[in-house]
Amino acid sequence: MSVLEQILGEIKSMCTEKFGHSITNEVVGKDGIKFILTHVALPSISILERALEEIKSMYKEQFGHSVAEDVVEKDGIKFIITRGLPPSTSTLEQLHRRDRT
User: Where are the domains of the chain?
Assistant: First the structure.
């Protein structure tokens, strides 16, 4: 049992390190059966936003385009379909310069 307790301690430490809050346990009993209730504070909005940006970055690195873009091929031509806000003028100019070289 001590190995499992050690692993649980490591997981709790990683959670505290990753999310900035700790996990607490409470042992309760009902009908002669003991249960362990685990309490975890919800992560803050800023932590969730930071995690989302990490995931978006990993997605772009893996697939070569952002989450908001789809790459579609029709008649041998690849199109990038972007959803959401349109790119800024400076971004379009930058893409144009990149494609011309």
Answer: 45-100
